[in-house]
Amino acid sequence: MTVDPVSHPAPAPVPELFTWEFAADPYPAYAWLREHAPVRRTRLPSGVEAWLVTRYADARQALADPRLSKNPAHHDEPAHAKGRTGIPGERSANLMTHLLNIDPPDHTRLRRLVSKAFTPRRVAEFAPRVQELTDGLIDRFAARGSADLIHEFAFPLPIYAICDLLGVPREDQDDFRDWAGMMIRHGGGPRGGVARSVKKMRGYLAELIHRKRAELPAEPAPGEDLISGLIRASDHGEHLTENEAAAMCFVLLFAGFETTVNLIGNGTYALLRHPEQRRLLQDSLAAGRTDLLETGVEELLRYDGPVELATWRFATEPLTIGGQRVETGDPVLVVLAAADRDPERFDAPDTLDLTRRDNQHLGYGHGIHYCLGAPLARLEGRSALATLLTRLPDLQLAVDSGDLRWRGGLIMRGLRTLPVTFTPVG
Ligand code: HEM
């Protein structure tokens, strides 16, 4: 950008973060940060100060930097923030001692165990079930001509999918949906009703793991569920405590649920706002092609992805990120949504281009904590968007964009509701 040396324009004011306007469209503020303060110490709504990292190159480096720990014990928690940092796991152990809150060597051991049980083949076998769920949910509202796509579609799909994957019996899955609903509606922090839901989930998971261990057949049956696979892996020499198993189930639910809700919600919304891109996708699906669906889902993740900020990291020693010194104990938040719009890395970053190639977005993170569920998320995202656009081809927003509300949490980015209308079918 060239700056006129004569007129000395006043510097653009520092944008206000974490307001409702910001939630509706954080991208202009992120562009400002990338340009003027790419690694900026910022006071969060909870009162905690953290470094926000907004450029792609810095973000990628920070995500893979072993000096940035995931363990909240490394946080140099200021006295005024005690107990209200909003950092999951800072003050409670148990379910919070999971992959996203631990470092090697524990992380390596636990990730290896779950990777064994959660293979790409296992995910691929799951495709017919995801399609069945997708169609079943659309069947429920297709004849009505209107729906709230968050509550009736994006929300139930991933929770039932993860429950099936884990091996939660169908008759218990609605309880899970309700607990998860409570956690998502109230921002995910372990407080109040959320704490009660987490407690119920913990009790339920502990009992389920116990029962599955007692009933585990000697040989794995084809299509064995993930909890049984985890118990089997742990029983074969690698140690996994019951608490670790419960925490693993919890992280799969918690990491795989709201994210996928937002992929379907934000993705559908972006397509509704870009009719020419949506038309391209619909035409290619009608021609029986899936290539545009595949690049398209990646582009939707880049353009307006479900995870706005990567989860917390804490400096274990002084280090420099993007020329900025960060002290031991400082929290660092990598802003994936900002990095994925960095013009240094992406051509026309604010343009939605479903044909985009070389799209190494950070929507699934990077480094050793790279999203474990990415194959499942892709499967669900592709199935949901393709089925929706094929079965309800004239889908449109039922309200003005300005009337939509975004959920206000720090880490995730997603809509509260997505009301649509379409020509009734079936
Ligand atoms: C980690 C994004 C779906 C399980 C992550 C991370 C991101 C991410 C950004 C890294 C966070 C960090 O480094 O701070 C997404 C997105 C999804 C999605 C955008 C949907 C579109 C899923 C699903 C599952 C899942 C469906 C599983 C059922 C996990 C797990 C981790 C993780 C277990 C932690 C991995 C580790 O720490 O080693 N995800 N995720 N995710 N994700 Fe996903």
> What is the CATH first-level class name?
Mainly Alpha
The helix content is 40-55%
User: Architecture in CATH?
Assistant: Orthogonal Bundle
Percent strand: 5-15%
Q: What distance separates the N and C termini?
A: 54 Å
Radius of gyration: 22 Å
> Uncertain spans, ≥5 residues at pLDDT below 50?
1-5
Task: Figure out the total of helices.
Answer: 16
Query: Which structural class do the helices and strands define?
Result: alpha+beta
What is the overall pLDDT average? Answer: 89
CATH superfamily, please?
Cytochrome P450
Count of distinct strands:
10
CATH topology, what is it called?
Cytochrome p450
Number of domains: 1
Cross-sheet strand order for the largest sheet: 1-2-8-5-3
Ligands (ions, cofactors included): protoporphyrin IX containing FE
Family: Belongs to the cytochrome P450 family.
Protein name: Cytochrome P450 hydroxylase
GO molecular function: heme binding; iron ion binding; monooxygenase activity; oxidoreductase activity, acting on paired donors, with incorporation or reduction of molecular oxygen
Region (Disordered): 67-90
Describe this structure in words.
It comes from Streptomyces minutiscleroticus. Keywords: Heme, Iron, Metal-binding, Monooxygenase, Oxidoreductase. This is Cytochrome P450 hydroxylase. Belongs to the cytochrome P450 family. Strand 6 (319-321) and strand 7 (324-326) form a beta hairpin. Mean pLDDT is 89; it is low at 1-5. This protein has one domain: Cytochrome P450 (Cytochrome p450). The chain has helices at residues 20-24, 27-36, 56-63, 106-117, 120-125, 127-141, 149-154, 156-166, 173-185, 192-215, 226-235, 242-273, 275-286, 291-304, 336-339, 374-391, and strands spanning 39-43, 49-53, 68-69, 146-148, 313-315, 319-321, 324-326, 331-334, 396-397, 419-421. The relative contact order is 0.17. The chain is of the alpha+beta class. The protein binds protoporphyrin IX containing FE. The site of protoporphyrin IX containing FE has 28 residues, from helix 12 and helix 16. Residues 63, 99-100, 111, 162, 251-252, 255-256, 259-260, 263, 301, 305-307, 310-311, 363-365, 369, 371-373, 376-377, 381 line the site of protoporphyrin IX containing FE.
